[in-house]
């Protein structure tokens, strides 16, 4: 086993307490079947018919920023297929996986050294853009308005990976657009209020995560505490526990117990800003396990890179002035990506940096 590599060691206050696991409250499970029944021409046909679901979503977004979705419409056999290709990809030797290694300038591809808030994560990953190519700013510098196109790196092995990923993206994206409507409705907005930030371009991506069993689960984390930068995340976890959410009311870390076949949905920083803090992107992390490896597949639903993210006009007034200044989503994403690659001596970019005094 050897000595633990210090790049993985979390500061004492960030280390997980593995002896106290709080699953008590759990994460709400929301049944989306009424939504599919009242959906026509790519929109909710009768918002009043799904009022109860919208309320449940609103409550979950407000209280925790997390919920689980059942009857979500994504075929189970498709999910099983992507989970299977992900496992087969990671089971290969490092040399094979590194054939699709990502480079420092772009996001897609394989990597085994990501950092969250300057500590190395105990995991390896493989990322795919959902739109190809995806335009993004060449640099996080606001004075540089050049863009660059990122393209995917599909591995040759397993040979059925690409087909499964493409089909999965198509189905999960349909769910993502529905969730975007439900979130808009829950805030009292027009159902398609956020669609314009996605319809022409997006910077969404899906990620295969593999957390190998870790001999030092009390010192390291699979992913350190963070909020997801996009609007929302649709996560397919496997049956091994590990994801923890920090509950707002008492700041305790709550272990998510995955419901079979459900997706775990969380809102990200973009919805936090759009809602002017009515909803807050929940902080979460992944705890590792000395016995079992774990796999997960998040889909990050991110707006077009040129989106200026700011509180919705309908939600602000004199009593509730904007809490954030507008920021460019692509610049934010690029800055986050740069800091995730290597340890830096400054605090990583956070949404709080755009908060108005
Ligand atoms: O693996 C998980 O459960 C969550 C991973 C995660 O939070 C992320 O990749 O952003
Ligand atoms: Fe995350």
UniProtKB/TrEMBL annotation:
GO terms for molecular function: metal ion binding; oxidoreductase activity. It comes from the Eukaryota. Keywords: Iron, Metal-binding, Oxidoreductase. The keyword rRNA-binding does not apply. The keyword Membrane does not apply. SUPFAM superfamilies: Clavaminate synthase-like. Residues 202-303 form the Fe2OG dioxygenase domain. PANTHER family: 2-OXOGLUTARATE (2OG) AND FE(II)-DEPENDENT OXYGENASE SUPERFAMILY PROTEIN-RELATED (PTHR47990). Belongs to the iron/ascorbate-dependent oxidoreductase family. This is Fe2OG dioxygenase domain-containing protein. The lineage of its organism: Eukaryota, Viridiplantae, Streptophyta, Embryophyta, Tracheophyta.
């Amino acid at each position: 086993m050897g000595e633990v590599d210090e790049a993985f060691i979390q500061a004492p206050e960030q280390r997980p307490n593995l002896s106290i696991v709080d699953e008590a409250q759990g994460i709400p499970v929301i049944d989306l079947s009424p939504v599919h029944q009242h959906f026509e021409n790519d929109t909710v046909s009768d918002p009043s018919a799904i009022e109860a679901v919208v309320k449940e979503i609103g409550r979950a977004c407000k209280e925790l920023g997390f919920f689980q979705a059942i009857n979500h419409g994504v075929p189970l056999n498709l999910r099983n297929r992507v989970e299977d290709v992900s496992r087969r990809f990671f089971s290969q030797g490092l040399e094979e996986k590194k054939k699709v290694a990502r480079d420092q300038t772009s996001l897609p591809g394989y990597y085994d050294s990501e950092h969250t808030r300057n500590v190395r994560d105990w995991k390896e990953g493989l990322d795919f853009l959902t739109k190809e190519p995806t335009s993004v700013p060449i640099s996080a510098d606001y004075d540089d308005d050049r863009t660059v196109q990122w393209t995917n790196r599909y591995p040759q092995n397993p040979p059925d990976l690409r087909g499964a990923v493409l089909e999965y993206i198509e189905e999960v994206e349909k769910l993502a657009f529905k969730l975007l409507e439900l979130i808009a409705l829950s805030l009292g907005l027009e159902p398609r209020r956020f669609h314009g930030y996605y319809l022409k371009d997006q910077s969404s991506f899906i990620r295969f995560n593999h957390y190998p069993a870790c001999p030092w689960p009390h010192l390291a984390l699979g992913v350190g505490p963070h909020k997801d930068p996009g609007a929302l995340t649709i996560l397919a976890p496997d049956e091994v526990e590990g994801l923890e959410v920090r509950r707002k009311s008492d700041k305790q870390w709550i272990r998510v117990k995955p419901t079979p076949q459900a997706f775990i949905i969380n809102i990200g920083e973009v919805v936090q800003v759009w809602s002017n803090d009515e909803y807050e992107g929940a902080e979460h992390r992944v705890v590792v396990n000395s016995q079992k490896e774990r796999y997960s597949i998040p889909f990050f639903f991110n707006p077009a890179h040129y989106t200026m993210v700011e509180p919705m006009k309908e939600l602000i007034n004199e009593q509730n002035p904007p809490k954030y200044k507008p920021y460019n989503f692509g610049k934010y994403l690029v800055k986050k990506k740069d800091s995730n690659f290597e340890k830096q001596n400054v605090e990583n970019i956070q949404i709080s940096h755009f908060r108005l005094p």
